[in-house]
Design brief:
The protein has a 7-stranded mixed β-sheet. It has a single domain, classed as Aminopeptidase, CATH 3.40.630.30. The protein is α+β, with helices and mostly antiparallel strands. The chain contains 4 helices and 7 strands, in the order βααβββαβαββ. It is globular, with a radius of gyration of 15 Å.
Length: 171
């Protein structure tokens, strides 16, 4: 089931989101975090991210019998001349839930909610060669280009980033 994250966020949801982030880091995802990330720092990051989010931000979660198994967010652009634009961020699917369509379902739902909220341009980036790259291509996202050595993998190794966009029709 994919649903908006209930606010104010509960301690158990923060814990689940932190565990999801740690699982992604442990599987080698380049998310801005290194192998040294702790449960406590991951929880603090989620609390900060959620509490400081723009009022138009949307946090979706996918749940299974073990708790939060996935998440994705809409982060609206902050400049007045970009109110039509948002970034899609932190599509995370726990390893226990991968290969079950759980990546495409949150993306379809976040795109639907973005369009309903009036956004007409979405952007995102992902690690080159990551499974999400093919997911975005299948979902109709357009590649802008590749930035070499843009970020670091959790082990500190530089990795390339692919930037995508998707135009949404006005409702």
């Amino acid at each position: 089931m994919i649903e908006p994250l209930a606010l104010p966020v509960s301690d158990s949801d923060v814990r689940d989101l932190a565990l999801l982030l740690l699982d992604a880091i442990d599987s080698g995802a380049s998310l801005g975090f290194l192998d040294s990330t702790t449960l406590e720092s991951a929880e603090a990051w989620w609390r900060d991210r959620i509490s400081k989010a723009d009022a138009r931000a949307i946090f979706l979660v996918a749940r299974d019998e073990n708790g939060i198994a996935g998440t994705v967010q809409i982060l609206p652009a902050g400049m007045p001349n970009q109110r039509h634009r948002a970034d899609i961020a932190k599509l995370l699917i726990h390893r226990r839930a991968r290969r079950q369509g759980l990546g495409s379902m949150p993306m379809l739902e976040i795109e639907r909610r973005a369009q309903a909220a009036g956004f007409t341009l979405l952007t995102l980036d992902t690690k080159r060669g990551d499974g999400a790259e093919s997911l975005y291509r299948r979902g109709g996202w357009t590649e802008v280009g590749v930035i070499p050595a843009y970020a670091l993998d959790p082990d500190g190794t530089p990795c390339d980033t692919v930037v995508f966009y998707k135009a949404l029709p006005r409702l």
